[in-house]
Amino acid sequence: MHMPPVVVKKRGVSVGRMVKANIVGVLLFMEILVSGYRFGVDGLSMNYYVLSCPMLEPIVRNTVSSALQADPTLAGALVRMHFHDCFIQSGGPVYDIPKGRKDGRRSKIEDTINLPFPTFNATELIRAFGQRGFNTQEMVALSGAHTLGVARCASFKSRLSDPADPSIDSEFVKTLSRTCGGGDNAEQPFDATRNDFDNLYFTALQRKAGVLFSDQTLFTSPKTKPIVNAYAFNQAMFFLDFQQAMIKMGMLDVKEGSKGEVRDNCRKIN
Ligand code: HEM
């Protein structure tokens, strides 16, 4: 069977369905993704595989389900992959395709320059996301993906050098320093619940306990602070904004016809 590298949305749907026990938010937004695509948003059709591979969805769902049961940290990795897949490629025209989201035919490490850096301040983040058509609130909502997963010391250690970044809480500097005692690859969870999709990321920012500079800047900057406070206060509002922004992100740079392909091997272009 020709097993494509699974349209990201389909992969996401499976994740959402399967982790409902503990990642309610992921479930919620993935389900909304489904309904969005059922109605044919931007031509990305849920029926793409109906004839060519009708068993695709259960196969993917079961595969990802077992993988997540074995390792719940996969949820964060998948959400991050979705961001990088959609965000990296620039300049390419966006096509409405009735068939499904294809893989790009270009895969270059230098393109990752298009990703925002963890050293960005709020103004730079607003500009970077603005170039992809996201407003400030959508950018803050998407940053809330850091409710899942971890950052490695290498991504934040520059904040710890003398003088330490003044936007960090003095106790939290010690926590980060302890983590970095384990070397560049040592992992620091973004919030207290690394496998739960909740709004604790935003309450951490309020306590000046954001892990990346680009996280904490959202609370430091008056342009974004009210949004952080709103999400910290109202988790439902965060979930809704996140879902909508993720749907929008899934529509970035959709490839049509020969501009895209279905990879035989996910790791390399055909
Ligand atoms: C606002 C700009 C962003 C910056 C500067 C940024 C940067 C980073 C960095 C540096 C890490 C840690 C990498 C490491 O040390 O291994 C990370 C992890 C992560 N990012 Fe972002 N990111 C941003 C936005 C996003 C968005 C929009 C999403 C998804 C919608 C996302 C999802 C994730 C997830 C889930 C992880 C954890 C991955 C894991 O634990 O396996 N990030 N990000």
From TrEMBL:
Residues annotated for Ca(2+) binding in this entry: 147, 191, 198
Binding note for cofactor: Binds 2 calcium ions per subunit. Binds 1 heme b (iron(II)-protoporphyrin IX) group per subunit.
The keyword Disulfide bond is annotated on this UniProt entry: yes
Segments crossing the lipid bilayer: 21-40
Database matches in Gene3D superfamilies: 1.10.520.10, Peroxidase, domain 2
Enzyme class label: oxidoreductase
Alphabetical UniProt keywords: Calcium, Disulfide bond, Glycoprotein, Heme, Iron, Membrane, Metal-binding, Oxidoreductase, Peroxidase, Transmembrane, Transmembrane helix
Catalytic function, reaction form: 2 a phenolic donor + H2O2 = 2 a phenolic radical donor + 2 H2O
Keyword Hydrolase found: no
Family statement drawn from the similarity comment of this UniProt entry: Belongs to the peroxidase family. Ascorbate peroxidase subfamily.
The protein's name: peroxidase
